[in-house]
């Protein structure tokens, strides 16, 4: 039985790009196509605004952050709460956890080093475990972690 012929070769091409026009086209010609300089932009930015400008002066808005903070501080003063008073610092549990972990881990390794099944290898591994655990806990608890 003869093999079936191969299907015709497919040619793949990129399709034509389609762009969506978001802004409506304007009929106005560009203002000026001459090159500009930084000094010209600086001079234009430093010109004081005209009093007869059609743009209204900046009115306090509902999102004025300084006004909101003043209002909140007034409410807190009326309630008798001092917003600027320092809060008492909570005592850190880091030292307690450090000693708990250190005594537990070193107790395990001390039992391996000095316990009833002691030999040269368990003594060496126990002492090495105590040294490694102590150094690791000091590093992690006092240099890596923050107060919690």
Q: Could you provide a short overview of the structure?
A:
This protein is mostly helical. It contains four helices and no strands.
The description of the largest β-sheet is: none
Tell me the radius of gyration.
Answer: 38 Å
Quickly give the structural class: mainly alpha
- What is the arithmetic mean of pLDDT? 85
Unreliable segments (pLDDT under 50, ≥5 consecutive)?
Answer: none
- Number of continuous helical runs: 4
Binned, the helix content reads: 40-55%
Q: State the separation between the terminal residues, measured CA to CA.
A: 79 Å
Overall geometric form: flat
Number of strands: 0
User: Which sequence of SSEs, written as H and E, runs from N to C?
Assistant: HHHH
**How much strand content do the residues show?**
under 5%
Description:
With 148 residues, the chain is mainly α. The chain has four helices and no strands. The protein has a domain at 94-144. α3 runs antiparallel to α4. 1% of the residues are buried.
SSE layout and pairings?
Blueprint: H1 38-45, H2 65-79, H3 94-114, H4 120-144
Helix pairs in contact: 3-4
Attribute tags:
mainly alpha; 4 helices
